[in-house]
Amino acid sequence: MTMPRRRLALSSLLLAALSFGGTMARAVDAAPRDLGDWTLAPSEDGQGCFLTRVYKRLGGTTLLLGLDRDGSNHLTVLNDNWSIKPKERLSLDFRLTSGGYPKHFAVGLALDGKRGFVTSFESAFPTYFAKSQRLDIARGDVPVERLMLDGSGAAIAALRDCVTAQTAAPAKASRDDAALDGIPRDPFSKKSRRK
Question: In this predicted structure, what is the pLDDT of residue 98?
Fold first, then answer.
């Protein structure tokens, strides 16, 4: 049985929303680099990189754009004052300088005391984002946020370079791949017999 495309996309965003807190924390821990108003950080798991920008306004809006090695992206916007519930389904209008995404789906999340939403777009979104001067977000007639994107062109170029560097680098051994606590990688191989 196949899932309808919108339902599958929503399921993927719910998974992203559930795991997002850990991913962002790892990204913050992995040597962030300032690029003007933007901060760039690779994810610890080696699967992508993140751009973050904090806007000094009521509630301290945080914008985070993640780009994964497979080309997928995730846009998250958070604010101390928002009342979005985690996993809440949203329909928001996103407007860039060069075009828009009306009634685009998003999923609510809570992270570090802030509430907001996460969504994803087609693979060309980072290019449109880089060429835009502003991102307006609305919930029907209600404005949600108006975010200036100055410096986004250079920031997106650095984001892509970061992802390319992670793609070229050998993948880090995961806990499952390493022989930890005296447990060999393949306990059934002839080399793994204890003396």
Answer: 81
Q: If DSSP codes are grouped into helix, strand and coil, which group holds residue 107?
A: strand
Question: Looking at residue 32, what is its pLDDT?
Answer: 81
Q: What are phi and psi of 15, to 5 degrees?
A: -60, -40
User: Count of CB atoms within 10 A of residue 189's CB?
Assistant: 9
Non-local CB neighbours of 70 within 8 Å, separated by 6+ positions: none
Cα–Cα distance for residue pair 28/50, rounded to 1 Å: 9
Q: Which residues of the chain have pLDDT under 50?
A: 1-29, 177-179
What's the predicted TM-score (pTM) here?
0.73
- Cβ contacts of 45-54, under 8 Å, gap ≥ 24: 45/172, 46/166, 46/169, 46/171, 46/172, 47/166, 48/163, 48/166, 49/159, 49/162, 49/163, 49/166, 50/24, 50/159, 51/155, 51/156, 51/158, 51/159, 53/147
